[in-house]
Specification:
Elements (H helix, E strand, L loop, with lengths): L11 E7 L9 H13 L2 E8 L3 H13 L5 E5 L10 H5 L5 E2 L1 H15 L9 E5 L2 E6 L3 H15 L10 H4 L6
Parallel strand pairs: 1-2, 1-3, 3-6
Antiparallel strand pairs: 4-5, 5-6
């Protein structure tokens, strides 16, 4: 699929929350992402919460990247500078290709909301095995910003001039 489709194409999305303090009962960031992807017409196919641990993160992400049923992974948490924040270190080595523009654009749009504090975000994205991965801060507001201003459009087959849907549909252009 080299051009944006005129029809909406629902995607299978997994949500991973990285936190030492959140639980399934109080994971507001994960809840927001699940709500947004559902409202957009996509399907939630997996959701889990792991501690800030490089190897737990890699284990879950690697399994999802290898699963042909999962096309997109949304990761919230672990992107700051605290000692336990290890999401970039854990997941960047798994990427076949980084999506440099995601982190850059996230910090740019966040500047209007949180000022120079945006410099403390290590949001990142990448593609691995035709799976698109977006890693964003654990703040619920940051997840809303990421989805509403960037991710939602890039996962919509109707968005022009380009989007990631053709890539994640197995057999799409690499």
């Amino acid at each position: 699929m080299s051009q944006a489709s005129t029809d909406f194409v629902p995607l299978n999305i997994a949500v991973l929350t990285v936190s030492d303090t959140r639980t399934a009962e109080n994971d507001t960031s994960g809840d927001l992402l699940v709500q947004r992807l559902g409202e957009a017409g996509h399907a939630l196919v997996a959701r889990t919460l792991v501690r800030d641990d490089v190897y737990q993160l890699r284990a879950v992400a690697s399994a999802w990247i290898a699963d042909p049923a999962i096309q997109v992974v949304l990761v919230t948490g672990g992107t700051g500078f605290a000692g336990r924040d290890v999401t970039p270190e854990a997941l960047a080595p798994l990427f076949d290709k980084p999506i440099e523009g995601f982190g850059e654009l996230f910090r740019q749009v966040s500047l209007a909301e949180i000022g120079t504090s945006t410099i403390q975000s290590r949001a990142l994205g990448g593609v691995a095995n035709h799976t698109v991965i977006f890693c964003m801060p654990g703040s619920t507001n940051a997840c809303a910003t990421a989805w509403d201003r960037i991710i939602g459009q890039q996962l919509d087959s109707r968005h022009r001039p380009c989007n990631f849907v053709g890539l994640v549909r197995r057999g799409g252009a690499a």
